# Entry
Amino acid sequence: MIKLHQKPKLLWSILLTMVSITAHQSRAQGRLDLYIKEGLESNQSIKQQNFMLEKNVYALSEAKSMFLPNIAFSTTYTKADGGRTIDIPVGDMMNGVYSTLNQLTGSNSFPQLQNQQVLINPDNFYDAKFRITQPILNAELNYNKKIKTKQIGLQKTEVLLYKRELVKEIKIAYYNYLKASNAVKIYQSYLVLVREGERVNKKLLDNGKINRTALVRSQNEVSKIEAAIVTAIKTQESARYYFNFLLNRPQTEGILIDEITTLPDQTALIGEDIGNREELSKLKIAKGINEDLTGLAKSYLFPKVGASLDLGSQAFDWKFNNKSRYYLLGVSLEWNLFGFGRNSSRIKQSLAEQQAISSQTDYVQQQLLTELKVRQASMESAVAEFQAAQSQLKTSQTYYNDISKLYKEGMAIYIEVLDAQNQWVDAQLQANIALFDTWIAFTAIERANASFNIQ
# Structure
């Protein structure tokens, strides 16, 4: 019975223990979160997707710029000789008049003129101008802008999808590494135990207390565990290589780990919410894009209206003055009245694509919901196996302790002790596997319902 004056100390001790456990688990989770952050920042596939997102952003900027005026400068210079001419009978028309005027005035003020031949092709002629064009009414530009905007959202969703898949792979690789590392520790602890048994049996054999069978069996057990340790270390190395590969780090770089002894949150086993899955978001955006494509196909029903303004100079012999400068303002209208079924075919194609996307969305929803249910069932199974493994671990440890006492008292043979040791070690290994299988199953549920918060 706890005395009254001991209760504050006991409560304080319990409180410190709870704080220590909470801080320890937070640190472990914090390390994994840091690794996830590092992986998201360094993964090459995600970088490629971000470049594609940047490309789509520039494509949207280009679509927006189509609504603004466009200014272009152009110039031409023509040098010509020969070819067709225009005959201008200036002399025939004016020489008679000029002769009469000279007689009346008694002077030669009005000279005789020659008939002219002017080249149709301009010779030594230039035309330099700035052309400003501005769309006034163009439905295609509006739909193009909408499509580019939705494509950015589609690419953002694609990036998020890559990140979510990478997070799942990093967490599973981390848990596999912890599983392998713990297996190495279990085997190493057992190796100390069987080596001690070998030492004791050798001493007992030297003193004639036992026969040679016990020593041979203990030596074989040492060899078996040493081989198991080598295999476990290779498994640990493979897990480390893959984990570092996901983080784009050197393969041999060390991994900081913490002990995980508790099960994940059991609330993940309930609920059927798959609304956060990026696959469904992509289909929703794709449907919106297809609707805009349908509108783009129907835009032929509306005319295109635009305006243009030319500011320039044109003259012979590179002259530039008030007479060479000019402006030209124009308004254009284009209306596609008949296309021999091309426009209606485009519309029908878009409508058929919409129906295909709707059908695909229904199928994907059922597929994702089925995946979530399967993952939840897998976690339930993993939890049950963990609980069974814990029970087996407790039983095997009790059995080993009892056999060890009987062996020390001479009431059991070494083979029984060795069998109890093997059962105890196997139970530890199974409990270790079952623990991290639950975390791997929990990670699969996080992926199935997209519940992990990606920054």
In short: The beta strands are 70-78, 85-88, 116-119, 125-137, 304-316, 325-334. The radius of gyration is 44 Å. The chain has two domains: 24-69+140-302+340-449, 81-121. Residues 1-28 have pLDDT under 50 and may be disordered.
